[in-house]
Amino acid sequence: MIKVGDTLPATTLYEYSDVEGEGCSIGPNAVDVAKASAGKTIALFALPGAFTPTCSAKHVPGYVEQYDALRAAGVDEIWCLSVNDAFVMGAWARAQKSVGKVRLLADGSADFAKAAGLTLDLTAKGMGVRSNRYSMLVKDGKVATLNVEGPGKFEVSDAATLLAQAKG
């Protein structure tokens, strides 16, 4: 499993945007993790799936609500990763009203989750291999803090915990 001090996995995530900008097409657009995290402080959190109960009711809304506080604490970007495709993540971003605050990034084949050693096998529930629920503060591509949830829990990967770590 990835740990504090490690570099983020050199993988590609995908993002769907409803609005063209900064020379990007609407999508899906490739996001090279190494390039996108270089020189930035990122509040990164991951969850098992878009449109799922805890993820939609608590996890993403908490980061949307804490956007200004996280920015004030030195966070440049907030990333949400899930093992879904970019089109689903784009639709979820609209539903969560997270556009412009939280980047919902697709790890469609679980490449990032596998490389980080943070997978969750939900095959028995018909969901296949997903990402575990966790959060991390990333500085210049390296893990500064890591908060991994226990099975079925939502106690340490929330926005308030990561905000306290960003301030600390």
UniProtKB/TrEMBL annotation:
Keyword Oxidoreductase: yes
GO terms for MF: thioredoxin peroxidase activity
Enzyme Commission numbers on file: 1.11.1.27
GO cellular component: cytoplasm
Top-level class of the enzyme under EC nomenclature: oxidoreductase
Residues at the active site: C55 (cysteine sulfenic acid (-soh) intermediate)
Residue ranges constituting the Thioredoxin domain according to the UniProt record: 2-168
Keywords (A to Z) from UniProt: Antioxidant, Oxidoreductase, Peroxidase, Redox-active center
Keyword Manganese: no
InterPro entries (alphabetical): PRX5-like, Redoxin, Thioredoxin-like_sf, Thioredoxin_domain
CDD domains associated with the record: PRX5_like (cd03013)
Domain of life: Bacteria
GO biological process, alphabetically ordered: cell redox homeostasis; cellular response to oxidative stress; hydrogen peroxide catabolic process
The reaction(s) this protein catalyses: a hydroperoxide + 2 glutathione = an alcohol + glutathione disulfide + H2O
Described function: Thiol-specific peroxidase that catalyzes the reduction of hydrogen peroxide and organic hydroperoxides to water and alcohols, respectively. Plays a role in cell protection against oxidative stress by detoxifying peroxides.
Family: Belongs to the peroxiredoxin family. Prx5 subfamily.
PANTHER family given in the database record: PEROXIREDOXIN (PTHR10430), PEROXIREDOXIN-5, MITOCHONDRIAL (PTHR10430:SF16)
Name under which the protein is recorded: Glutathione-dependent peroxiredoxin
